[in-house]
Request: fold
Amino acid sequence: MAKIKKVKSISNKKEHVKKKVDLADIEKVIIKISIEIAKRGEGALFVIGDRIHYGKLVRHKFGKINVFDKGAEKVLKGLAVIDGATIIDRKGNLVNYGVLIKNTRPFVGFGTRHAAAVTASKNGNVAILSSEEERKVKIFRGGRYIMQIDALQKNVEQKVPAISKILETAGAGTLGYIGAATLAPTLGIALIPGIVVFGGSYYAIKSFLDRFNNGKQ
Reply:
């Protein structure tokens, strides 16, 4: 009986490994964690991807952790506020934490964490930054700053699924229907309270707004 149970357990484990993980689901978990960190007035940088150039600042020892594991959010919150970036692969596994992003170049008006986020978000990666000073969560993709989330906005955590949808459409250069939208030329597109989108084509965004406004009339 013991051998049968053991074999069955291994089989289930293999099935779990083979199961496809959606990047959007990983983003939802990390965005939620990042909002909570920013709300506390602490800073952090998560990078999701498989092609990230970084160096270890110190040697760490940790077991295998996946963002979907029970209790993983609490662990990730603690690790993320350590100096350096936290690396998550496209299967949701914690790869490393407290690391230095390589080839980072400074940007006028931005701190080292912002510069690291811009660099780390290249090569198909997504960087999600919690700003302790602004209490904002900032999302970078393709080396560009594409979204800002106000962590102090009331019930913003409940909007994470909508935020994920915006990321999908903004990343494709178009915007899907989310809700009331206004154009802030110097800031970006505020689709829902507390959320500002910077990515995508201006004309694609303008076209979306025109269709939305015409539909209301």
About this structure: The first strand starts at residue 44 and ends at 48. The chain has one domain: 21-216.
